[in-house]
Write a structure and sequence with these properties.
two-stranded antiparallel ribbon; seven-stranded antiparallel β-sheet; about 270 residues; 9 strands
């Protein structure tokens, strides 16, 4: 690691006071690639959906707006359970390529995030920041799993998993079909490097995977690893992330809100 690539992140507290905190870039290929993207976006407003600044609780209303935008006949969502959420996620997947090309497609992403919000897969262990469609061509394919850290350290910055799909453990937990073709289609390792980041609110040590999941995963694991050309998948891949930057401070960021990111404080 070197402090040559120092930068600041500015936060706001509950009284809207500005607090600037120092970070320095981690010495890895994935961190260097990420930082180049961030430099292009430092003056671009963050996306409120990816940065979890919008209300996602009313899935029925959001789904209705999505169907109006997509010109689809809605299914019944009076009862929201995991089977229904799986149906809605498949509708999102099938609509993504076409609708993402349309102007003002914000509802497409709000719909997707609301589905995962109701699955309970978004925890408040980090401050998550993204630019959504504004990052445009900065997104690239890159195998990130080999850069995953053994644990997440409070205040450090990490690259979140942001694939169009689910991690294998979530696939199993969400009771998706016991079907090899669907598993290959929906379950994804970390193979996309985007201009997003997460600031850890607390230290997290990956725990052992559920034994029932490990037993279930045995039938899918090897063909899936070979399909994606990766060597392993374990608790670190499920629960950790690549390190992007190290905090040069000990501030408690839990009560703070992200404001902006600037290189060398400029």
């Amino acid at each position: 690691m070197t402090k040559n690539n120092q930068f600041k992140i500015f936060f706001k507290d509950s009284k809207n006071n500005i607090i600037d905190l120092d970070y320095y870039l981690y010495d890895s290929e994935v961190a260097q690639k990420w930082f180049k993207k961030i430099k292009h976006l430092s003056n671009v407003p963050i996306d409120p959906i990816e940065s979890e600044l919008v209300n996602l609780t009313d899935l029925s209303k959001i789904y209705k707006e999505f169907c109006e935008f997509a010109n689809l006949q809605p299914i019944n969502v009076d009862e929201i359970n995991q089977d229904k959420l799986n149906q809605l996620h498949k509708i999102y997947e099938q609509s993504h390529d076409q609708l993402s090309r349309k102007k003002d497609s914000e509802i497409l992403y709000r719909f997707h995030h609301s589905i995962h919000f109701h699955e309970g897969t978004h925890e408040s262990n980090s401050i998550n920041i993204g630019w959504g469609v504004k990052e445009g061509p900065l997104t690239e394919k890159f195998y990130c799993n080999s850069y995953y850290e053994n644990n997440i350290i409070k205040n450090n910055i990490y690259l979140p998993w942001t694939e169009l799909g689910k991690k294998p453990l979530d696939y199993w937990r969400d009771k998706e079909p016991n079907d090899h073709a669907r598993f290959i289609e929906l379950a994804k390792p970390h193979i996309t490097l985007r201009a997003t980041f997460s600031i850890a609110k607390k230290t997290v040590f990956p725990v052992e995977l559920d034994k029932n999941f490990i037993e279930w995963f045995t039938a899918y694991k090897q063909p899936w690893l070979e399909h994606h050309n990766i060597k392993k998948w374990d608790s670190i891949d499920e629960n950790s992330a690549p390190l992007l930057a190290v905090a040069d401070h000990t501030e408690d960021i839990n009560p703070l809100r992200f404001h902006k990111i600037l290189r060398n404080g400029n």
